Amino acid sequence: MTDFDVGARLRELRINKGFSQRQLAEAAAVPHGQISMVETNRSSPSVATLRKILGGLEITMSEFFEPEANQVNEIFFAPDQFKDLTSRIYSDRPETRGRMALKQVGNAREHGLQILHETYEPGADTGDDMISHPASEGGIVIAGELEVTVGDSVRILKTGDAYLFNSREPHRFRNISDRIAVVVSACTPPYL
User: Which GO terms describe its molecular function (predicted)?
Assistant: First the structure.
């Protein structure tokens, strides 16, 4: 994979939107200096922070990392047609590489619905920084077990168990077992 210049891409999108760094920081509810640090590649934002910044631009992570993605309106998808979001989203976290896979079905933005096939190796974790974004999400564990934290609620979900919550609540996913966990999830509006 070629190196992706997060700072240059963020700067390009901010300018296209007509925002100053301060305006984007206010829209995203992040410190002004953080936008400058990211744009100059002096700081690599966490996934949670990057999501907040992109929320201020009203774009998804997928749109940020794959601006030229094929927009064909497909109906049916084979597994090899799923869009792998993992390598781009978690490229700055070596401890996650190869331990988690997030694969999107089709064009989430076009349909206002993001469907993911998620795989968590033993020890995989979305990170200490809890995730939050303006959406609703749910999923079903189809193999293994996964610890899901939403706000102050924590539960280990086993095969067949499901979750559904307001994604504005800080949340986290961890595989604390010794087996692979697989989840099929949906989120609206799309956030990755």
Answer: DNA binding; DNA-binding transcription factor activity
